[in-house]
Amino acid sequence: MVSLALTLGLAGDLLRRDPDRVAVLLEEARSIARSALDDLRAVMHSIHPPVLADRGLGDAVRALVLVTIAVPLAGRADEPPRPRPYRARDRPAATGSAGHP
User: Could you tell me where the Basic and acidic residues compositional bias lies (predicted)?
Assistant: First the structure.
């Protein structure tokens, strides 16, 4: 995308002085844009595979996983983790090593 912006900027600068060169730059910009869109489609396809839209999250994850592992969870899985309050006794372990080479 940066290359596209630079190419279009150069084409704009040359518009009055060298129209033939501008035509070449515009074709180059078109090619760069097509390539960027292809790359973006590939990335979006990997982020949002069709199986996710067609069959939902559970099937999409199962399609990516080679092994199924059952893990029992203690407590409620839908609750966010509780924050742990900072304790003064935790600090020396982190800062005490700074004084030792």
Answer: 76-92
Domains contained in the chain, number: 1
CA distances from 43 to 12, 47, 64, 77, 95 (A): 30, 6, 16, 30, 42
Per residue in 42-60, pLDDT (tens digit) is 888 777 777 777 888 788 7
Q: Which amino acid is at 39?
A: D
Domain span at residue 9 reads 2-72
Structure tokens, 3: 């290359």
How far CA 87 is from CA of 77, 84, 92, 93, 94, in Å, comes to 26, 9, 10, 12, 12
User: Do you know the residue count of the chain?
Assistant: 101
Residue 45 maps to a domain: yes
Tokens 């003064």: give the residue: 88
pTM of the model: 0.44
